[in-house]
Amino acid sequence: MISKPVAPTGRTAAMIMSLLLDLVNILGGLLLAIPLLGRAPVVGYDLGRFAAKMAPWRWIIGVIALVAGGYFLIVHAFSGPNVFHFEIVGIAVGICLAWERLTGRTPIAPEPGTDATGRWLALGIFGVIAIIVGLQGLVTPN
């Protein structure tokens, strides 16, 4: 007997959105932390090449982070136990990555090959925090 595909239920959709939020936190944090992580002696060159390939699509990652973080912010603000740091970090990553497309101004997210000084250093540290929050979200049960 062939069964019809079933639309995801509320719990399945929430799990998919949660996984999506964690993945964009990790990937977005990696893109923000490139000036800092690019200085690592062993993997710095490879991370720089990866960031250069991902640079044209970082605004899409930012929009996905905004949508997923906003979804959970609304859900947890109205019906959840409290607002968690996962969605706050996701929204901040989304704003940083999609800033150029949202405002038309110069990007907040660093271009590959920039030096880790000033605001790029602060964004690099925030990127490392976003990576840690994303990894924590992967192992935290919903």
Fraction in beta strands: under 5%
Task: Give the helix tally.
Answer: 6
Structural shape:
globular
**Cα gyration radius (Å):** 17 Å
Total number of β-strand segments?
0
Topology as a string of helices (H) and strands (E): HHHHHH
Termini distance?
A: 34 Å
Poorly predicted regions are none
Helix content: 55-70%
The chain-level mean pLDDT equals 83
Query: Structural class, from secondary structure content?
Result: mainly alpha
Biggest beta-sheet profile: none
Could you please describe the fold and organization of this structure?
This protein is mostly helical and 142 residues long. Helices cover 70% and strands 0% of the residues. The protein has helices at 10-32, 34-37, 44-54, 58-78, 85-103, 119-139. Helix 4 (58-78) packs across helix 5. It is globular. The chain starts with 9 loop residues before the first helix and ends with a helix. The model has no long low-confidence stretch (mean pLDDT 83).
